[in-house]
Design a protein that fits this description.
single chain; 92 residues; alpha+beta; 2,3-Dihydroxybiphenyl 1,2-Dioxygenase, domain 1; four-stranded mixed beta sheet; globular
Length: 92
């Protein structure tokens, strides 16, 4: 049986990497652990734990999906909904 130790990373898109860095690193204090990228785009990952990190690709032309409530079902094109914390979102 496979034993899971976490999710290495989730790849997400942002159109503003500088604001993403401020929101992820500067407010909650996530450590910026990677910053590779290709010409014309940046990629950064933020350490949540030793095994888990959200990674963001900067694509200036990406548009956010239409607004919807968290967990509300959608029809048509789908975008990532949210990342939940362990313990049902309750703080330990």
């Amino acid at each position: 049986m496979i034993q899971h130790t976490g999710i290495h990373h989730l790849a997400l898109a942002t159109r503003g990497m500088d604001a993403t860095i401020r929101f992820r690193r500067d407010l909650p204090g996530m450590r910026l652990v990677a910053g590779p990228g290709r010409t014309g785009s940046r990629q950064h990952a933020f350490e949540v734990s030793g095994h888990d990190m959200p990674a963001f690709f900067e694509w200036p032309e990406v548009l956010p999906p239409p607004g919807k409530g968290q967990g509300v079902s959608v029809g048509g094109p789908f975008a990532f909904d949210h990342v939940g914390r362990p313990n049902g979102g309750k703080r330990p």
